[in-house]
Amino acid sequence: MKPRFLLGLIVSAAMLAPSPALAWGRTGHRVVAAVADQHLSGLARAHVREILGAESLDEAAFWPDEMKSHPSQFWQKTASPWHYVTVGGFTYDPPPPEGDAQSALRRFRAMLLDPATPREDRQLALRFIVHIVGDLHQPLHVGRPGDRGGNNVKVTWFGRETNLHAVWDSALVDDEQLSFTEWAERLNRHTSSRDVIDWWVVNPIVWITESAQVRETIYPADRELSYDYGFRHKPVLKRRLAQGGVRLAAYLNQLFDEAGALRPAAQ
Q: 136: which strand partners?
């Protein structure tokens, strides 16, 4: 696959370090999308349908990770850094020349606001936006310099060798033995109107700052993780999944409101 907009997104991919593992895993990304679907405006829902056709948000959510297996230069190199940011402290640092999730989000937003963008590229842009908003709410996709978002932090999960990033991508989520629809239904049921109001933030820098703050609380002193680690951190995990869904809806609602305002008035 070689999207037509690729020439406008050339990056120095050969200089990139390997990217972290998949954020949230299949279930987590679909949960974020399913939560968001409950908060979309009618206009945003119509735009999503116009772009994706019969493909749902939860189908689109994991697509950028699935495409990492594609052998093309675009998927193996160019798009690799669009899944994470690296932040030394709690404040977002400007992206490197190669770009990162935050700068990619800005780029894809501009593509959807440009009426000249071909539909195929609009589909790619929307899928990436859905995915990146989820990524930025996974605390280890706002990684410390040098440890690849916790991939280099070796741990065991109930005796099985893994790493901290994988625990947050999938192990904590899948430990609940829920489908993504069950997850989304429970999160929506426990998300109050006050929560939605407080979380309705479309600024990615706020999401990144929150994730960086959470990140500093989840590195374990004991590398053998099991019930105690899950008990202490699942409330945070649930909040970040729910916030990711609410923020995705907020982001898409605002984006498509702006897209509508940019259309010329009917004559």
A: none
